[in-house]
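ugh ok so i messed up the first submission bc i forgot one of the chains. this is the corrected input, ALL of the components this time, i swear. 564 residues overall. if the numbers dont match what u have on ur side tell me asap before i send this to the collaborators (the ones from the other lab, u know who)
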Amino acid sequence: MAAVTPLLSTRGLSRSFGGLKAVDHVDFDLPAGEIRAIIGPNGAGKTTFVSLICGRVLPSSGTVTFDGKDISGLQAHQRVRAGIAYTFQITSVFANLTAFDNVALSVQRRLLDGKDKSGALHDGVMDALQKVGLTGHANAVAGKLAYGHQRLLEVAMGLALKPRLLILDEPTQGLSDGEIANFIALVRDLSKETTILLIEHNMHVVMELAGRITVMEQGRILAEGTPEAIRADADVQRAYLGA
Amino acid sequence: MTGRAPSGRVFALHAAVILGLLILNFVLPEYHRGVFSRVLVLAAFAMGYNILFGYTGLLSLGHAMFFAAGLYGAGLPVYHLDWSVAPAFIAGIASGAVLALAIGFLALRTTGVAFMIVTLMFAQVFYLITLYFTTYTRGEEGLVIRQDLRHLRMGDLDLALTDPSLRYLIALVLFSAVLIVTLFIVRSPFGRSLVAIRENEERMRMLGYNVFANKLAAVVLSGAFCAASGAAYALLFGYVGSGFASIQYSILPLLWVLLGGAATTLGPLIGTLFMFYIVDFTSGFMPAYLLVVGAALILLILFFPKGILGSIRERWAPWLP
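and heres the new structure output, hopefully the right one now
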């Protein structure tokens, strides 16, 4: 593993809000093709950390390297075009547009870039909707979809960008057990094409999906390892699992 | 295509509106033809404002400066340098577009209320500049462009812009051009991006869109449309004065668009027309006509908060662009 250049790495990545060190000198590596889960108690800095990766929040110090290039100086939209997609923790679809038109905004962006002219707009959209199982809802107005379907639409918008790294911020929050089971299958399927970074509170989802788990606490990485190793880790149990 | 407005009906409607306006040239009494000429030119101003306010969701309180940039950009060269009308018109549009680029670059660093204040302040600066250089602009009193300068000459063709019928037709050409370009923009990927930015800017950024560049393009387009309207106004009606750079002319396009329906292609025309005639009608009866106009506006906003065409779209015709 050590010889392979990771898809994503951060070195000394930090962000303070006033006196609070939300993310504190984090060194992090994510190899291509992995499903990585980030867990940790509320306020551990998980969302700030992924926001630093995708450029929504600017770091106080440190670097982010993606695919061998230093992207610390790139703006959020440039990082998206470089291949980092982010799906929002709070569902952030365009409520007045149809599901189709929501995903079309992603596909349109990709087509405008000129990297991929092969798929027409319509095909690209229906492909993404089909993957998340929303084909039948293509013409429904997004704001009127059931909550679980809005979450799936959010994921469809992310994967329609054909990202190399897909960041999912608490994707199963508010989903029913049945929807969660489908979601696990969906993410497994997606991981064949893209690397996935997942912030998740539901330990069942984490244990099912993650190849490795990174545990954060107070802005730092507390532990990192396979699900089994994390489950056995005494520090982690004290900080998070074993409450 | 799934989820898109039916093209045939949309094009037919817009063609019918333009054709109807063309027929009006031959049937309207002289006075009303004059009113319509003005309304068509000012509707282009409102449509320019609508690109930014209606579709992109940026409320500017300074669009008088773009209208006036067109007005002065076209009027001053004709008055002082004896330019002919065609290059003067182009100079007017260019003035507005360049000004919009500069103002947009600075003002788009802000959003919401700050954007309103910043645009308002820049427009005020522009207004004061027109007063400061009163040697050239004659300030509030303004310049009257001589009738013999307002001729469009192409080869042997010599058209007097003062002729009422020709003036109406030229106003209609300007209006139609701006309308068609607006319709084209609104239905293009760029137009859909603008609407999406209005709805959720952060999401668009995270879909890889350069939000700033898209907004800047909207400001420049909007400024160019408003300047085209201002330039046409100077050349067709022969008057260039500081009054058009005042705050009143920043508020008016906002009212026209709100009245007609923000983010509708034809709303600006309806709003401008409605406003002109309600003022015209009430001022014939009483000196306190603005009171009636104000009351009418309040009632409209109360019962049709989305404007005339916006309400029609909401209730009966969701396909309207």
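quick check: Strands of chain A lie at 8-17, 20-30, 35-39, 61-66, 69-70, 84-87, 165-169, 195-199, 212-217, 220-225. that seems consistent at least. Chain A has a mean pLDDT of 89.
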